[in-house]
Design goal:
It is a single chain. With 161 residues, this protein is an alpha+beta fold. It has a single domain, classed as Sandwich (Immunoglobulin-like). The protein is 14% helix and 30% strand. A 4-stranded antiparallel beta sheet has the order 2-4-9-6. A 4-stranded antiparallel beta sheet has the order 7-8-5-10. It has a two-stranded antiparallel ribbon with strand order 1-3. A hairpin with a 5-residue loop joins strand 7 and strand 8. It starts with a strand and ends in an 11-residue tail after the last strand.
Length: 161
């Protein structure tokens, strides 16, 4: 069986480029946001991006096998400090060019456009678990686009967000 190679440096480059774009422009909502709604962006939380927030996807395969199901972890690091009094710590949106994304728990949800995002319960954290089912044709290349927002939960568009 043939395997599709996804160079890890290319994936890392895409993740960094897209996350910088989305940290600058993505609108986050406590109940999540579809990728199609977020891709053009807005600056609802802060007037500019911060370089101390990163978003990553771990457990991506170097090569995927046709129709295999992969458990992926999405993590936001940096941003406002999480305190015992704070809520609404962050959110994300993720899309893939091929294959199918699905939710693993009550903290994520699938949107109509096929992207996956956090739920209201899932915005009180900065890590999420999702599943990606590879397409039946493993000769293709996949592109993941992810955006995230690390916030302080005060419902105000201010600098810490």
């Amino acid at each position: 069986m043939a395997h599709s190679s996804i160079p890890k440096t290319w994936i890392l480059f895409l993740l960094v480029a897209v996350s910088v774009f989305f940290v600058t422009l993505a609108e986050s909502r406590s109940s999540g946001i579809a990728y199609d709604d977020a891709k053009n962006g807005c600056i609802c939380h802060s007037s500019s991006a911060t370089s101390d927030v990163t978003i990553s996807i771990s457990d991506l395969p170097g090569k995927f096998e046709a129709s295999e199901i992969y458990d992926l972890n999405i993590t936001l690091t940096g941003g406002p400090e999480i305190t015992s009094d704070s809520q609404n710590h962050g959110g994300f949106t993720l899309t893939s060019s091929i294959g199918t994304l699905s939710s693993k728990d009550e903290y994520t949800q699938l949107m109509e456009d096929g992207s996956i995002t956090h739920t209201s319960a899932g915005n009180n954290q900065r890590t999420w678990k999702v599943q990606w089912t590879a397409p039946s044709d493993d000769s293709q290349s996949v592109e993941f686009k992810v955006g995230g927002n690390s916030v302080n939960g005060d419902d105000e568009p201010n600098e810490p967000d």
